[in-house]
C-alpha cells in the first residue's frame, strides 16, 4: 500500500500585527536615513530605535541595502504620482512644465518631507545598490522627459542636456533655499521661465 502524498504546506501569510510592525520599522528607518544618511545609519541603529533586538530585525527586512532601496523607490513612486496627477488635466506643454517644477519643489523643499534625502543620498551606497538606485531614478525622470518632448524648442536644442539642466536646477535648490521671500511655487515658476528663455 502506497503512502498518501502529503499536501504542500501553505505559505504563512503575514499577520496584521506583523505588517504593522514592519510599517513602523520602515518609518523609523526612513527618519534615520534622512537624518544620518545611508552611511551613517546602521541596522543596529534601526533596531534600537524600533525596539527590535538582535537578529529579529531581519525577520522584517532582508538587509540595509534592501531596506534603503525600498524606501528610496517608495519616495520616488510617491513623488512621481504626485507630479503626474498635477499635470494630468493640462494641455499646454509649458504649463505642464511649470506645474511639474512647482510640484517637484513643493516636495523637495517641504521641511517635513523625507523624500529629498532618500532620493538624493546614495553617493556612499555600495556600487551594486547605487546602480539600482540610479536606474530607478532615471525611470522617474522620464516624467520630465515626456513633458520636455512636447515643448516647442528650437531644433538645435539637445533634449537630454535640457532635461539634465532642468533637473539639476530643481534638485539643488535644497542646497541654498531658505524660507522667506520666495515660496517653492514662486521658485518653480522662475525655473520654468528660465527654461523658456525668460518668457512667462
TrEMBL record:
This is AcrR family transcriptional regulator. PANTHER family: HTH-TYPE TRANSCRIPTIONAL REGULATOR PKSA, HTH-TYPE TRANSCRIPTIONAL REGULATOR RUTR. Residues 1-21 are annotated as: Disordered. It comes from Novosphingobium sediminicola. One of its GO terms (molecular function) is transcription cis-regulatory region binding. Residues 19-79 form the HTH tetR-type domain. Residues 1-12 have a biased composition (Basic residues). Keywords: DNA-binding. Residues 42-61 bind DNA.
Amino acid at each position: 500500500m502506497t503512502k498518501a502524498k502529503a499536501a504542500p504546506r501553505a505559505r504563512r501569510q503575514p499577520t496584521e500585527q506583523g505588517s504593522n510592525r514592519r510599517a513602523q520599522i520602515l518609518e523609523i528607518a526612513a527618519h534615520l536615513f534622512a537624518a544620518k544618511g545611508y552611511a551613517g545609519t546602521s541596522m543596529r541603529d534601526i533596531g534600537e530605535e524600533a525596539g527590535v533586538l538582535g537578529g529579529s530585525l531581519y525577520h522584517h527586512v532582508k538587509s540595509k541595502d534592501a531596506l534603503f532601496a525600498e524606501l528610496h523607490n517608495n519616495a520616488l513612486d510617491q513623488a512621481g504620482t504626485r507630479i503626474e496627477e498635477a499635470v494630468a488635466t493640462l494641455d499646454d506643454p509649458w504649463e505642464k512644465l511649470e506645474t511639474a517644477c512647482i510640484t517637484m519643489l513643493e516636495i523637495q523643499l517641504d521641511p517635513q518631507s523625507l523624500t529629498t534625502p532618500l532620493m538624493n543620498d546614495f553617493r556612499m551606497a555600495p556600487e551594486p545598490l547605487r546602480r539600482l538606485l540610479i536606474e530607478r531614478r532615471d525611470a522617474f525622470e522620464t516624467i520630465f522627459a515626456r513633458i520636455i518632448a512636447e515643448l516647442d524648442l528650437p531644433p538645435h536644442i539637445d533634449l537630454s542636456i535640457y532635461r539634465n539642466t532642468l533637473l539639476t536646477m530643481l534638485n539643488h535648490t535644497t542646497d541654498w533655499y531658505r524660507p522667506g521671500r520666495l515660496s517653492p511655487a514662486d521658485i518653480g515658476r522662475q525655473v520654468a521661465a528660465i527654461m523658456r528663455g525668460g518668457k512667462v
